[in-house]
Design brief:
Blueprint lengths: L1 H4 L14 E4 L1 H6 L15 H5 L2 H16 L1 H8 L2 H13 L19 H10 L5 H14 L2 H5 L2 H10 L5 E4 L1 H30 L3 H8 L12 H11 L17 H16 L5 H6 L1 H10 L4 E5 L11 H5 L24 H5 L5 E5 L1
Antiparallel strand pairs: 1-2, 3-4
The protein binds iron/sulfur cluster (2 copies).
Length: 353
């Protein structure tokens, strides 16, 4: 598979590296590096403070988190024109390479992966969805994972308060990344099987056996589906007398526990769901490796033997120092630019080719 067989940086393993290492922000500042031109934001540089790319990304992430469910806000705010505006957006917006269910009452856009599952299992070949996905990923890479996806955003905010992070060794990381590949093969394989059965008119029994897994097999484990669709359409207890609703929750209780687990583990392990479990992330990574926009390193400034700041801050645990200087072509890179923001030598560059 793309990430494991072709991604050679991770196959060179440092022998003395333990399976799990805990890295703190203090260590980031302790890593020796050339003291050349430290780039600190200060009051003397107010423009730099305002247009700090890290802050900009947080703002964009929050806007998309609200925007993806903007229709629900519009319903709260009320007003015919506001509702009409969001309904109009819902009609024209294509799918984006994130995870987001269009069935959510507040949704104005859908995740490409979610849409592909539904189209394949409905016996439709998704020309438009696939075409839009390939164009976006081959130009902008997985930047929508880093800047737009609501589940990526939730994990990023969960990890913010904790200064120490757990980083598995390259071998362990590679093994764990395989899980999302297997999940992808199973859920997309099921969708295509159901779709082909529909085309040949033999889907009735299969759909009955698969039940809710027949349309989109990943939905019961999809945190975006659980949060933005199931949680918003559940009967929630609104008084002591209605607490008995909880007895009807069944599977939903397990799904809530899974979402809590994603957030809870995410405090120590940045984006662990994206790195190891998200089948959409695997699909997007497969098409974004040769993306036009990406990351490179300036060999005149980078000091890989004495500095590892970029790797310590990378939420996707990518071995940046082992990539070619010219271009980091990793299916895992989500273009969050954390490495660029933190590099003390200004060695990380955004490339456009
Ligand atoms: S890997 Fe999946 S959950 Fe993570 S940001 Fe990308 S689409 Fe969202
Ligand atoms: S390599 Fe840099 S831009 Fe890519 S995911 Fe890691 S920190 Fe973000």
């Amino acid at each position: 598979m793309v990430e494991d067989s072709e991604w050679s940086e991770d196959t060179e393993v440092e022998e003395d590296e333990s399976d799990l290492e805990e890295v703190s922000d203090e260590e980031v500042s302790e890593v020796p590096h050339e003291p050349e031109a430290p780039r600190r934001l200060s009051l003397e540089n107010p423009i730099g403070m305002i247009f700090n790319v890290r802050m900009l990304r947080r703002v964009v992430q929050l806007l998309f988190l609200l925007g993806i469910n903007a229709y629900i806000l519009a319903m709260w705010i009320g007003g015919e024109q506001v509702l009409a505006f969001w309904e109009g957006i819902r009609d024209i917006l294509p799918t984006l390479p994130v995870i987001a269910p269009l069935e959510a009452p507040g949704a104005v856009l859908a995740g490409t992966f979610d849409t592909l599952q539904r189209e394949f299992s409905g016996g439709i070949f998704p020309f438009f969805t696939l075409g839009a996905m390939i164009i976006i990923l081959t130009v902008l890479g997985r930047s929508s994972c880093g800047w737009v996806c609501p589940i990526g955003t939730i994990q990023d905010f969960a990890t913010l308060p904790k200064r120490s992070k757990v980083r598995p060794s390259p071998n362990t990381e590679n093994e764990l990344r395989r899980i999302k590949t297997y999940i992808f093969v199973i859920v997309m394989g099921l969708a295509i099987w159901v779709g082909i059965s529909r085309i040949f008119g033999t889907a009735e029994d299969l759909v009955r056996i698969l039940g809710p897994f027949a349309t989109a097999a990943f939905d019961p484990f999809n945190p975006a589906f659980i949060i933005f669709y199931e949680a918003t359409t559940q009967f929630w207890p609104y008084s002591l007398e209605t607490l008995w609703f909880i007895t009807q929750w069944g599977l939903f209780l397990g799904q809530i526990a899974f979402v809590i687990l994603i957030v809870g583990v995410g405090i120590w392990v940045p984006r662990w769901f994206c790195r190891w479990l998200c089948p959409a992330g695997w699909l997007y990574g497969a098409f974004s490796r040769e993306a036009l926009v990406g990351i490179g390193r300036n060999p005149a400034r980078c000091t890989p033997d004495t500095c590892s700041v970029c790797e310590v801050v990378c939420p996707m645990n990518i071995r940046i120092r082992r990539s070619p200087y010219k271009a980091l072509r990793s299916p895992e890179c989500i273009l969050c630019l954390e490495c660029k923001s933190h590099c003390p030598n200004g060695a990380i560059v955004l490339r456009f080719s």
